[in-house]
């Protein structure tokens, strides 16, 4: 296990997850599984960059689809301006 990783005791992990939102719990479970899978192997781009890259694209796609492609409404829901949304959509090849 990496020096920065924290392994919670089983009972504490259960207690923590009961106070988390469904999305937060899903992210926690996925990151825990990822860390267990890679062990001490370094993540070249950094875990934060990896998670953002893997999560941002699908999130943008789903929010945009939910709002029937309306970028202004999607941007408002995401809490970003429309120009930022367009930039992110382009970065993820979604334009």
TrEMBL record:
Domain of life: Bacteria
Alphabetically ordered keywords of this record: DNA-binding
InterPro entries: Fis_DNA-bd, Homeodomain-like_sf, HTH_Fis, Trans_regulatory_Fis
Domain DNA binding HTH, first and last residues per copy: 52-91
Keyword DNA-binding belongs to the record: yes
Stored Gene3D superfamilies: Homeodomain-like (1.10.10.60)
Family, as annotated: Belongs to the transcriptional regulatory Fis family.
Protein name per Swiss-Prot or TrEMBL: Putative Fis-like DNA-binding protein
Organism: Dyella nitratireducens
